[in-house]
Amino acid sequence: MPRIVALLAIALGLQLSSARTDTLARQRAASGGVIVFQSDRDGNPDIFIVPASGGDAINVTRHPANDLYPAWSPDCRHIVFQSDRDGNSEIYSIKADGTELRRLTTDPAANDRPDWSPDGHQIAFGGGIDRGNNEIYVMNSDGSGVVNITNHPATDAAPAWSPDGRRLAFHSNRDGNVEVYIMNADGTAPLRVTNSEQSEAEPTWSPDGTTLAFARFLTPRGGSPDIYLARVDGTDLRRLTDHPGTEYHPAWSPDGRQIAFHTSRDGNAEIYVMSADGSDHRNLTNHSSNDLLPRWCAPR
Q1: Strand, coil or helix: what is 4?
Q2: Cα–Cα distance between 153 and 190 in angstroms, integer?
């Protein structure tokens, strides 16, 4: 991916100079990239970005509506997210400097949890456009060409592209409790990855495409989740966190060495980063608000 040219272009309502923007971009590249996340620290859920090494978080969306579930474009220049700013939950994109907001979906049903394909051409998301139950859809990055790729009466949600763009991971209750599945990018050949009495959700691929990180709940009906890993064929299950609070929504670093996630271990929700083997936990955001749903991006 090309270098981040304009990671932050507005801060406290002031336009940054191009030289300052380039300096910030270089700092973030040198420090392992940047993490986008959702936070209510300004009163309602907005989309924020923060250096992966820590530092000040910047509000990208600055809107009184609920802006949720952010994800990066592969070049780290744009963020896709869901928002109810026009009344219904729809998918939007915005540049990482807070400019060029675009509404991508216009449906009577709610659309949620978008994820950008590695080649930048498509966006997968969940929605109830057809039957009312949640399905996985894929559209072009400009919002055109929406296609239902799951077409199943169960609830299918939280799509995540594989690094090569050929497959999608997602979670579904199609076999009873919520489990992690993978399928081809056109929706064919769905394969169940996890198979337990608990529920597993929010899968995300390792950068080398061999492993999925996901949250496992205590019971099929919920309970406090922890972060687990498994090979894409379901083998080599490993538990990374073991805490009575909520540990959720893992996000791999681009080099595969670390995983970000959100946790309630400090009372409120914070973004933590740990090594990919589950060691060396550190609080990245360290704020009294609720910081949730991290996604990691870095230039190559």
Answers
A1: coil
A2: 14
